[in-house]
Write a structure and sequence with these properties.
About 80% of the residues lie in helices and about 0% in strands. The chain has about 140 residues and is mainly alpha-helical. α1 crosses α2, α2 runs parallel beside α5 and α5 runs parallel beside α7. It is globular, with a radius of gyration of 20 Å. About 5% of the residues have low confidence.
């Protein structure tokens, strides 16, 4: 009888852990959707939440880059990006991944000077050395 209880407890714990993993994945997906929101306050709240959990941030980094690409493409050359855009670039830079670095370097060719300045700031802040050659141009 004792073995059955232990087995039941193990099965219960395994089910609970898989539920937690599923919940975490769902929470990350919701945060990414919030980062893509048109409402500035929602975007800033989601970015701050992602900043608090570096593992979740790294797991959704590709989605964050996709959102930042869309937004940078929508900006007119003389427009000023929303504050959440510069915060998003910083969040992307914090991951330190090669994809993040390549994306930030690609923004140096933007026609919007504010985007170029924000990307330069993030590259320097997070000491992305590979960007030096591009910055020398």
């Amino acid at each position: 009888m004792g073995t059955l209880r232990i087995f039941s407890l193990v099965v219960f714990l395994m089910a609970a852990l898989s539920t937690v993993d599923a919940w975490a994945a769902g929470a990350a997906t919701r945060l990414v959707r919030m980062v893509g929101s048109p409402r500035e306050t929602i975007r800033l709240q989601a970015i701050e939440s992602l900043r608090l959990d570096q593992d979740v941030c790294a797991s959704v980094n590709d989605d964050l880059i996709r959102i930042a690409k869309l937004e940078s493409g929508r900006l007119a050359p003389d427009s000023i990006p929303r504050p959440s855009f510069t915060e998003l670039l910083d969040l992307i830079g914090r991951t330190g991944s090669a994809e993040s670095e390549n994306f930030l370097i690609s923004l140096l060719d933007s026609s919007n000077h504010e985007v170029v300045m924000a990307a330069t700031q993030v590259l320097g802040k997070h000491q992305m050395i590979a960007a030096l050659d591009e910055l020398k141009k």
